[in-house]
């Protein structure tokens, strides 16, 4: 049974409050942490500045392993922002979920919704296709994308482009959604009515803690994989494999 949702309509489109609120909170956390860590930079870095530089170096190393140096330098800030936003969005629902009396969830992981992950996927692939046109020209881009390595592989290459979009978005959504669903099921078992409530709580509490830690780890891995695939797709479409 689907959970109830709070929606509103604007210009003929339906919007989900939980997605809007969760995404805005994730964005605010990313901005707040980035501003806090980068305040008052100095020649002699303090702990906050060291933390920010470590995060930048880490995201640059992810994208740098897939792209040439000059191209990786152009996408370093995008890779950092994407990684930071995705990891916060993955983890926030595991640490903070808000449900009202009507059963509607107003706060969860934004990436537990396919609309958010598909939007991130479209944005990433649009950048990859755009850099492909810029680097190779329109003709070279189309040849590289559709006719490589052989012209007779055109149908397979078209399917591959659709598969890239689906795998990039649904892999992230599936992992985060499954993690939150299982945590909710375990938490729900603690409130099971009857004489077995105490027994189920004893069993479910350590399981909840273990799965919470495992889900945090999976959320970080999925952010890492998303940025790696971003670099892979940019490399493929720009002819830098």
TrEMBL record:
Coiled coil: none annotated. GO terms for biological process: proton motive force-driven plasma membrane ATP synthesis. Keywords: ATP synthesis, Cell membrane, CF(0), Hydrogen ion transport, Ion transport, Membrane, Transmembrane, Transmembrane helix, Transport. The chain crosses the membrane at residues 17-38, 75-95, 154-173, 185-207, 214-235. One of its GO terms (molecular function) is proton-transporting ATP synthase activity, rotational mechanism. GO terms for cellular component: plasma membrane; proton-transporting ATP synthase complex. Signal peptide: none annotated. It is found in: Cell membrane; Membrane. Its main location: membrane. It is a multi-pass membrane protein. Key component of the proton channel; it plays a direct role in the translocation of protons across the membrane. Belongs to the ATPase A chain family. This is ATP synthase subunit a. It comes from Convivina intestini.
């Amino acid at each position: 049974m689907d959970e109830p949702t709070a929606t509103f309509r604007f210009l003929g489109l339906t919007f989900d409050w939980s997605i809007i609120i969760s995404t805005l909170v994730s964005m605010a956390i990313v901005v707040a942490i980035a501003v806090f860590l980068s305040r008052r930079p100095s020649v002699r870095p303090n702990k906050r500045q060291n933390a920010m530089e470590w995060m930048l170096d880490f995201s640059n190393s992810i994208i740098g392993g897939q792209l040439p140096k000059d191209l990786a330098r152009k996408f370093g800030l995008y890779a950092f922002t994407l990684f930071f936003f995705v990891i916060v969005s993955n983890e926030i629902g595991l640490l903070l979920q808000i449900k009202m009396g009507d059963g509607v969830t107003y706060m969860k992981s934004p990436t537990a919704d396919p609309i958010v992950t598909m939007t991130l996927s479209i944005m990433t692939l649009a950048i990859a296709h755009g850099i492909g046109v810029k680097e190779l020209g329109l003709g070279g881009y189309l040849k590289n994308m559709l006719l490589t390595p052989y012209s007779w592989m055109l149908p397979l290459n078209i399917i591959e482009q659709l598969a890239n979009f689906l795998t990039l978005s649904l892999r992230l959504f599936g992992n985060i959604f499954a993690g939150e669903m299982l945590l909710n099921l375990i938490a729900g078992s603690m409130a099971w009515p009857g004489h077995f409530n105490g027994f189920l709580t004893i069993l479910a509490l350590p399981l909840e803690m273990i799965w919470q830690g495992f889900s945090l780890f999976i959320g970080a891995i999925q952010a890492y994989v998303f940025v790696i695939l971003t670099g892979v797709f940019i490399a493929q479409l720009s002819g830098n494999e």
